[in-house]
Structures are given as C-alpha cells and as structure tokens.
Amino acid sequence: MSGRIDDQGGSPGRYGASATVEIDPRSVGRVGVAYNPVTDGDADPGEIVWTWVPYEENDGRGKDRPVLVVATEPRGTVLAMQLTSKPHDDQYDVGIGSGAWDSAGRPSWVRLERVFRLHQDGMRREAVALDAARFALVAAALQKRFGWRAGDAPAVARRSGVMGVFRRLFRSR
C-alpha cells in the first residue's frame, strides 16, 4: 500500500469506485467486530491504515488521515473509524493513546460517530496494528453505542483466543 497514487493523480480513496465514503453507523445492520490484524498489505480489523477522509461538511474537501479498521464486510470492503489527535473527552470518542501511526507521538482518539466504508484499493498504506486490549475498548464502545457485536472471526482470530475475549466482553453487557 505504501506510496499509492490513484488513477486521477490524488490520494487513494478520494475518487471513483474505491472512494472512501462516510456511512451512518446505525444503517449497516449486524456488524461483526473482530480483532484480526495480518500484515499482508490489505486492511484488516485491528489495523490502522491511511486513506482519504472527507471533511464533515461533505463539500468535496478532506485529507489523508489514519483510520482504525474495525470490521470486514462480506463484499470485501471494510468499516473504519476516524482517528484524531485533537483531545476529545465526550461520550463519542475513545482514547487509544499514542502509537506508530502518528510520527509526532501524539495521543489519539477514535471518533465513534465517524464511520467510513473503505475499499482495499482506496488506502494509501498500512500504519500499524493496534494492540488487542485497546481494540477491545473500541469494540466495547461500538457495542454500547450502536449495538455492534463480536461476529464470526476468521480462523486466525479464533485460533488466537481473541474471540473468546470478545464473547466474554459482550456477553457480560
């Protein structure tokens, strides 16, 4: 994914069939949130990737920024949440601290109200996998806010025992 330029000379995810689009998190139905990062060039749940993110005004402007992939959809697209380095302490943001996705080492927040559908060809690069504990915090917040639950995970996640953690986490709510 590193260094991609789209077919219109801009950031991947900005135009065309692979454009990143904001979606209403209440309209996507059952979402299976499962931690399954695999460093293979594709975006997987638990990974932070870079893509074009439209501004909230939805006026055609936006910028390349990190997003946390939280789920894979059956058609191959992924659902991702916007990250921001601006401090937020309201109920719609989850603090995840700092990591390699921010070269300045600033702490980040996941914006629960900004959900995006991404195409594998619409991302510029993988940044890093978020650790399972911080991903679980985001997953719990998504479950509380939107009713999203841990879904069927790929075999890699089942073998690692991560699904057991998610099942216990969501069963207790």
TrEMBL record:
Keywords: Toxin-antitoxin system
Pfam families, per database record: PemK_toxin
Entry annotated with the keyword Repeat: no
Record has Metal-binding as a keyword: no
Any one GO molecular function term: DNA binding
SUPFAM superfamilies in UniProt: Cell growth inhibitor/plasmid maintenance toxic component
Protein origin, superkingdom: Bacteria
Family according to the record: Belongs to the PemK/MazF family.
Protein's UniProt name: PemK-like, MazF-like toxin of type II toxin-antitoxin system
Source organism per UniProt: Herbiconiux ginsengi
